[in-house]
Write a structure and sequence with these properties.
By secondary structure, the chain is α+β, with helices and mostly antiparallel strands. The protein is about 30% helix and about 25% strand. A seven-stranded mixed beta sheet has the order 3-5-1-13-10-11-12, sandwiched between helices.
Length: about 750
């Protein structure tokens, strides 16, 4: 009856592919009003006048709200006391706007058309202020976003215990790397709806965790948690961008209470591109040194983090970059420091990897630059510096304890699968023939930290009178396939059919507690909680079976392969789960809970998935056009529960990683105007730009949890980005090119080639 390790189809997909699921925009909320936000069209200005009278009189308008109407509500709660209170973001712009897309006025109307028409009637006069868009310029404090703070610096991180020693290095190289700003662009934009039931708030969210959203709403509105119910039905993706509620969402309960009716907010794609927080946005100054045999002795990274107009989650992300500073390598000395700086751009935040892909991109580019400087093959340089498989658990300079790994093994598998030797021969032939289409081979090895925030995760399992099972989880899924995965785990532990398990999640009235789904923590934490709860349910059932058999509990055996209980030595005489249920108090009634077990599992530490990627690109030297010909990925996430779900997670990560390397990048002009506000200007990657991925399977179980699982949701992204970037640089290396910043677009490649030929 075991289903773990098999390619079970996602049970979520039938409704999504037929009826379309139930998203916030689909909810039937009688009397619901529409909220539309009037946003700033300029990047930095003082609000001189905001005239909303014409909008208030417009047909269909119920309410118009500005910051002056909020009665002291807000600002948005800061995620850390280390961030300056002077830089906290108001729910609506108060006096000054600091980025294009910042909400200034909320219009509440009977329908979307009326709200949009009324928005055109709002008159806002502004006095332009100096704009700080370029991150490096903003770091000099030339134009201040918050004069009262006296600086654009939101947070500085230093590591005084890390001291790089370049004194004995024969070769020292430096490289400046741009980790480009990205738009998360989930299929479902930021959406939410609020309504009041007497003094109780019911909030419908598209989010990564209903319980954290409940906590934030309760804090903003001075409510007790039981006075707030948060529900998330289907969620159309997130990638970290919906990890915390945005100010436009936090304002909805206030608007619903004023109107006395439910309200719903569904922004357009373009509004979301300039309102939903962006990801990445680092400039990295890297230094790496070693000897001519390829051994690395020292490495240092100085990171500038673009926090956007209001520092929040992204200002803290360099801590993750520091944590994974030296990657897979045994480097004797290293150093790190970072500054998070505000700019007149959309605030940045966590995005698929949240600081860890940035660390991998940095060290992997640095290793390639070092390999070129000492004249050695980048694969060989990696082999000479990787942490050995016999050294785990391994304590890094930055304080991480890597749980398990075989980094050289992953590299060897990926290199063999890609047949790098044959690719090098093809590359040499093309160069000798002065071929117009250049071939590049890029390699990256990586390790990343998952479930880095240590906290308990909730799971419960209960048996109903008909023998079916309800599993409740504190995780909030948004595309990962949790309901399939959790049903597999519970069915395996109990020995019941998969279809006998119903999974419930993402409703604070249904599930008592939970956290944010992120950091690739789900299986190794939420999954283990359900696995343990199911084990406790088995123990409860054994006691009931013992009464029925008139035997000692310790003599009762649970056979999960058959889904039965029996006395040791007499397997023919057994009880099914339904028969066990029948031994419970019949007064419970059919469908009522008979047996119930719950667990809050807290791991002793994070896990560290790892892998190696080989990217093959072709570059047209005349136009700069780049094509990703092949991507071979060996990603080790410990024990795999469902290979189909794992493949989906890895494939999505590979696509995102490749997209950042040669396609996607959010762009502003010097005045802070966003230039990539839709999918015509911001080229989200599609199947047309991608090859079929070659996945090399490898499983190295983690000792941190009893399932042996590590995170998988972000791994593909971590390794693919530097592999593709390294491949582009490799294609041009014989022309004298040593670096190309991401995204490696045709224009940037063309300009780089031209500059190298001068």
């Amino acid at each position: 009856m075991a289903v773990r390790g098999t390619r079970v189809l996602r049970r979520e997909d039938r409704s999504l592919l037929t009826t379309g699921g139930t998203f916030v925009a689909d909810l039937d909320l009688p009397g619901c009003l529409i909220v539309h936000y009037v946003t700033s069209p300029v990047a930095h200005a003082r609000i001189v006048r905001c005239d909303t009278e014409a909008a208030r009189r417009a047909p269909g308008v119920v309410d118009v709200v500005t910051a002056q109407d909020l009665d002291g509500l807000g600002p948005m709660p800061q995620p850390s006391p280390d961030l300056p209170a002077t830089m906290a973001r108001p729910l609506l712009a108060t006096g000054v706007v600091r980025f294009v897309g910042e909400a200034v006025v909320a219009i509440v109307a009977e329908d979307a058309a009326a709200a949009s028409d009324a928005a055109e009637l709002v008159e806002i006069d502004v006095e332009p202020l100096p704009v700080a868009v370029d991150l490096e310029d903003a770091a000099t404090d030339g134009h201040l976003l918050f004069p009262e703070a006296g600086t654009n610096l939101a947070l500085r991180l230093e590591a005084p215990d890390l001291v790089p020693d370049f004194g004995g290095c024969e070769v020292v190289t430096e490289v400046r790397v741009v980790n480009n700003r990205l738009a998360a662009a989930p299929m479902e934009p930021r959406v939410a709806a609020s309504r009041w039931e007497a003094d109780r708030l019911v909030h419908h969210a598209s989010c990564q965790g209903v319980h954290p959203v409940r906590a934030t709403l309760a804090k903003v509105y001075g409510l007790e948690p039981h006075q707030v119910r948060v529900v998330a039905r289907d969620v159309g993706g997130s990638f970290g961008a919906k990890g915390t509620p945005h100010c436009e969402e936090l304002l909805l309960p206030f608007l619903a209470r004023r109107a006395g009716r439910p309200v719903r907010w569904v922004p357009t794609r373009s509004a979301d591109m300039v309102g939903l927080h962006h990801g990445r946005g680092q400039v990295q100054y890297l230094r790496i040194g070693g000897d001519r045999t390829g051994r690395i002795h020292a490495y240092s990274a100085h990171v500038l983090q673009d926090a956007g107009a209001y520092p929040a989650g992204a200002a803290l992300l360099p801590a993750n970059t520091r944590a994974m500073l030296t990657g897979c390598y045994d480097i004797p000395t290293a150093g790190f420091r970072s500054e998070s700086v505000v700019t007149n751009t959309v605030p940045t935040g966590a995005y698929r990897g949240a600081g860890r892909p940035e660390a991998a991109a940095a060290i992997e580019r640095a290793v390639d630059v070092f390999a070129a400087a000492v004249g050695l093959d980048p694969v060989e340089v990696r082999r000479r510096n990787l942490i050995g498989a016999d050294r785990f658990p391994f304590r890094t300079l930055s304080g991480m304890t890597y749980d398990s790994g075989d980094y050289a093994g992953a590299l060897d598998r990926a290199v063999a699968a890609a047949d790098v030797a044959a690719l090098r021969a093809e590359q040499a032939q093309r160069r000798a023939a002065d071929d117009r289409v250049l071939l590049g081979i890029g390699v990256a090895t990586y390790v990343e930290r998952t479930a880095g925030i240590l906290r308990p995760d909730y799971g419960s399992v209960e048996l109903l009178a008909d023998g079916t099972v309800i599993a409740r989880t504190g995780s909030t899924p948004y595309g990962q396939g949790h309901h399939t995965a959790w049903a597999m785990l519970v069915a395996d532990r109990l020995g019941v059919p998969l279809e006998a398990v119903e999974v419930r999640s993402a409703d604070t009235d249904e599930v008592p507690r939970g956290g944010q789904t992120g950091g690739s923590r789900s299986l190794q934490s939420n999954g283990v909680a359900l696995w343990q709860a199911a084990g406790e349910l088995v123990d409860l059932a054994r006691r009931l079976a013992a009464e029925r058999f008139e035997a000692a509990v310790e003599d009762v055996v649970h056979d999960p392969d058959r889904g039965v209980f029996h006395v040791a030595g007499t397997p023919a005489h057994h009880l099914s789960w339904q028969q066990v249920a029948e031994t419970c108090d019949e007064r419970s009634g059919e469908g009522r809970r008979l047996l119930h077990a719950e667990t809050d599992f807290a791991a002793s530490g994070p896990t560290f998935p790892f892998g190696a990627h080989v990217a093959v690109v072709e570059v047209d030297r005349e136009t700069g056009a780049v094509r990703l010909r092949r991507l071979v990925a060996c990603d080790d996430a410990g024990t795999i529960l469902n290979p189909l779900l794992a493949d989906g997670q890895i494939h999505g990560g590979l696509a995102q990683g490749a997209a950042q390397a040669f396609l996607e990048g959010f762009v502003y002009d010097d005045a802070g105007n966003p230039l990539t506000t839709n999918f015509a200007d911001y080229p989200v990657i599609s199947a047309a730009e991608l090859p079929l991925f070659d996945r090399v399977v490898m499983e190295t179980p983690s000792p941190v949890n009893e399932l042996g699982a590590k995170g998988i949701g972000e791994s593909g992204t971590v390794g693919a980005t530097p592999a593709v970037q390294n491949a582009v640089v490799d294609a041009l290396s014989h022309l004298g090119v040593t670096h190309v910043d991401m995204p490696c677009t045709p224009e940037s490649i063309w300009r780089t080639i031209r500059a190298a030929s001068r």
